[in-house]
Each structure stands twice: as structure tokens, then as C-alpha cells.
Specification:
The chain is of the alpha+beta class. The chain has a single domain (5-104), classed as 2-Layer Sandwich (HIT family, subunit A). The protein is 21% helix and 21% strand. The protein has a five-stranded antiparallel beta sheet, with helices on one face. Strand 2 (25-29) and strand 3 (37-43) form a beta hairpin. The radius of gyration is 13 Å and the shape is globular. It starts with a helix and ends in a 7-residue tail after the last strand.
Length: 111
Amino acid sequence: MENCIFCKIVAGEIPSPKFYEDEKMIVIKDIEPKAKVHYLCIPKTHFALLSEMDEEKAEIVKHCFRVIPTLEEKLGLTNGYRVIINQGEDGGQTVHHLHIHLLGGEKLKDF
């Protein structure tokens, strides 16, 4: 999508250090961290909501969830972390490109 900030980061149009990248996803630091360690796992394919998933997009999300645990040490998440996907306005989604928040590096508060 031409106005999507995450699509621009994926395409290299907006510079952002990538802590991990493969053919389906990237991992970057969140610019407004909500924890000591806060990364975003961003699928390279643009879609905003889980409800928009078809089989191909479901495979991408599955891939993300398979890779995330392999990055725990590299990302400083070895003592546990929280995984969050915000969905829609009421869910706190501010960028309408599905992404997975990875928060950790400290004892996180309960909701």
C-alpha cells in the first residue's frame, strides 16, 4: 500500500534498522516503546486485520509465530515476553498493517 509506513520500511523507502529479516517478515524496534524491550514483527505482505487472512496470509502469520521464539536471545527476551496484536481502532491499532508487538526485558504489569 502506497501510504503504509510499514510497507515503506519493508521496501527500504524509510530507513529502519532491521534486527531480523527473511522472505516473509522483518523485526524492528518500536519507536514508542511500552516496555524496556519492544520490537515489532511485521509481515512483508500488507493486510490490516486477522479477519482479512486467507490461506497465504495465515501461513505468513504462522511463520512469524514460529520464528519469534528463535529470536528470544538475540532480542533480549530470554526471561519471558508478551505478544500483542492490536486489531482496529478500539483495539489500539494505529498502523493498519498487521504487526506483532514483542514486549519484555522487565517484569511486565498485568492489564
